[in-house]
Specification:
Elements lengths: L9 E7 L3 H4 L4 H8 L2 E7 L13 H11 L4 H12 L2 H4 L4 E6 L1 H12 L4 E7 L13 H12 L5 H15 L8 H14 L4 H13 L4 H4 L6 E6 L7 H10 L4 E5 L11 H12 L3
Parallel strand pairs: 1-2, 1-3, 3-4, 4-5, 5-6
Organism: Actinomadura verrucosospora
Keywords: Hydrolase
InterPro entries: AB_hydrolase, AB_hydrolase_1, AB_hydrolase_fold
């Protein structure tokens, strides 16, 4: 099997949240389950200038559509990332797609719009519809809003906020390394501090993306859905709905997992994705 870029090698595109790339900086031990057969390209949906292929990031495409008043945000989401920051710019004909949270919504839409370019689809802690499973309990929602409303003015504050947010929405069964999470928050701020306006556009983009369940029923792509049973942000019923919509999709749920990817579950999560990808 050739290992030259664009020639006969399995490829995995990972779409995550704003600090997604920084959360997986690519140490060899984390990449080991894939490194022999898979080229990895991490596309995150927050911030600018870090995409492997340059051009617009998926979130920027969303925001651009909102600013221009594009009536069909699904169209903007489904078409532009492939051409401007995705597979075409990387020179790839097709890839295995993995998306978490908003990244999962993007991956679902790309699979719907470009099924021939998606070898397998993995949707993690995501939803097939903007209003399905996306309303946290009122106490959690108020806490998220209070935390999000505090302006972040420096990397140290960003680190503290990252730790506080993980405690709020993370996995109750799995303790996390506060130093590691704080470092991710700090580096994310140093890379791109973000803005309240960007956060508002992201929330608006999710709402505008609509309901993909009917379109997902047309997919004939091997699909895996991973979801935490204790996710307070995108509840388990959203993952179940995704799996129910895609013919033949397999649902794997994790007790005690919240809206994060706890290190303790990495071996299982990676093995699930590896097994799906290597069937193709």
């Amino acid at each position: 099997m050739s290992q030259q870029p664009g020639e006969g090698v399995d490829r995995l595109v990972v779409g995550k949240g704003a600090a997604g790339r920084l959360a997986f900086p690519g140490e060899p031990d984390r990449a080991e389950p894939f490194q022999k057969r898979v080229e990895r390209r991490c596309q995150d949906d927050g911030g600018a200038g870090q995409g492997e292929a340059g051009g617009l990031e998926p979130l920027e495409v969303f925001a651009h559509g909102l600013q221009l008043g594009v009536p069909d945000l699904g169209e903007a989401l489904g078409e532009l990332p492939v051409d401007q920051c995705g597979l075409a710019a990387l020179g790839w004909e097709a890839a295995h797609l993995v998306g978490t949270s908003l990244g999962g919504m993007i991956a679902q839409t790309l699979a719907i719009r470009h099924p021939a370019r998606v070898r397998t689809l993995t949707s993690v802690m995501s939803t097939p519809a903007a209003r399905l499973g996306t309303m946290p309990k009122i106490t959690t929602l108020k806490a998220i809003m209070r935390l999000s409303a505090m302006p972040v003015t420096g990397p140290d504050q960003a680190a503290r906020e990252a730790v506080a947010m993980r405690k709020l929405i993370g996995s109750p069964r799995y303790p996390f390394d506060e130093k590691e999470v704080g470092d991710i928050g700090r580096r994310s701020y140093e890379r791109n501090p973000g803005s309240p306006e960007a956060d508002a556009r992201q929330r608006a983009a999710v709402t505008a993306s609509g309901d993909r369940r009917k379109a997902l029923t047309t997919l004939r792509i091997p699909t895996l859905v991973l979801h935490g049973e204790d996710d307070p942000v995108i509840r388990l019923k959203a993952g179940r709905a995704t799996a129910a919509a895609v013919p033949g999709a397999r649902l794997v749920t994790y007790p005690g997992m919240g809206h994060d990817l706890p290190r303790q579950l990495w071996p299982s999560i990676l093995e699930q994705i590896r097994a799906l990808a290597f069937t193709q």
